[in-house]
Amino acid sequence: MKAMQPISLDEMKEVQLMNRVDTKYLITEKQLLQILQRICNEYYAQEVLGNRFAAYRTVYYDTPDLTMYLIHHNRHLVRDKVRVRTYLDSNLSFCEVKHKNNKGRTSKKRIQVEPIANIVENPEAAAFLAERQPYEVGILSPKLVTLFDRITLVNFGKTERLTIDCNLRFNNFENNATASVAPLAVMELKQDGRAHSLLKDVLFDLRIKPFKMSKYCIGTCLTRPDVKLNRFKKKLRRIEKMKICEGK
User: Fold this and answer.
1) How far apart are CA 170 and CA 207, in angstroms?
2) Which DSSP category does 241 fall into?
3) Helix, strand, coil proportions of the chain in percent (round to 5)?
4) Which of 13, 25, 32, 75 could join 187 in a cystine, given CB atoms 3.0 to 4.6 angstroms apart?
5) 32: part of which helix (H) or strand (E)?
6) Which residue(s) pair with 172 in the sheet?
7) Distance between CA atoms of 149 and 166, rounded to whole angstroms?
């Protein structure tokens, strides 16, 4: 990754891709090194104050009955996620609503907020949530925290953005249980349009297939075994198998 040309936060604004198609992959450290070696001459690496890793903290909100989790579990095509994302290096926080439609397109709306224990107690954030998502704001509460270190890459054509989340771990608000998927990494390709992707060529060559994975849902499964998780069992087994293989 050191060989990649840097790109600044200001330059990254050209590649926001707020209305996009996302494709996720679950990879090992060995696979990550292979990928970086093969794309390093075609991608920029985001750099802030000389650092190419950024620490993130995300708090996911849901209803008392975990409606957003269950809608995803039950494979509804239209679904929403409500979260507060904090960029720990700059201490900036944003209240976000992610909406996925029945065409597989994901849109994200957000506003900057002051970090507080429960974002629905912030009048501006509450008004934003009331307008942008379908649930009664007053019943939403924090359910899960995710923490990870992110690498962000952008192709030279600026038609796609690639995020690589390492050291991913979870903490459940309700029972304080913790879990992690380390040493695996979650890679997400964010594209707007049908431009050719060198990364997809590399992944095809390495036989790495997409792996649909919601951090909120997987984190909830790993920290709350009492939840309904039948349709996530295959994914959980795959994660565990890859972790075991990586540890050998």
Assistant:
1) 28
2) H
3) 30, 35, 35
4) 25
5) helix 29-39
6) 144
7) 5
Nearest to 164 by CA among 185, 146, 148, 184: 185
> What is the rounded CA–CA span in Å between residue 141 and residue 170?
17
Note the helical H segments in 109-197: 123-132
**Both tokens assigned to 211:** 């792996």
Closest CA to 144 of 222, 201, 219, 34: 219
Of 19-23, 46-50, 231-235, the one with minimum mean pLDDT is 19-23
The mean of the pLDDT values for the chain is: 91
More confident position, 151 or 20: 151
Please tell me the distance from the alpha carbon of residue 63 to that of residue 132, in angstroms, as a whole number: 16
- C-alpha to C-alpha distance for 193 and 169, rounded to whole angstroms: 32
CB 216 within 8 A of CB 161: no
Pairing of strands 185-191, 54-62: unpaired
Contact by Cβ (8 Å): 111, 128: yes
Question: In angstroms, rounded to a whole number, what is the distance separating the alpha carbons of residues 28 and 182?
Answer: 9
Contact call for residues 215 and 232 (beta carbons, < 8 A): no
Using CA atoms, how far apart are residues 191 and 19, in angstroms rounded to an integer?
A: 9
Residue 33: Cβ within 10 Å count: 12
Cβ–Cβ under 8 Å, residues 22 and 106: yes
Q: State the Cα–Cα distance between residues 63 and 210, nearest whole angstrom.
A: 29
**DSSP letter, residue 49:** T
Could you tell me the pLDDT band of residue 192, with boundaries at 50, 70 and 90?
low
| Distance separating alpha carbons of residues 6 and 71, to the nearest angstrom | 39
- Residue ranges of alpha helices (H) inside the chain are 9-12, 29-39, 67-73, 123-132, 198-205, 215-223, 233-247
CA distance 183 to 166: 7
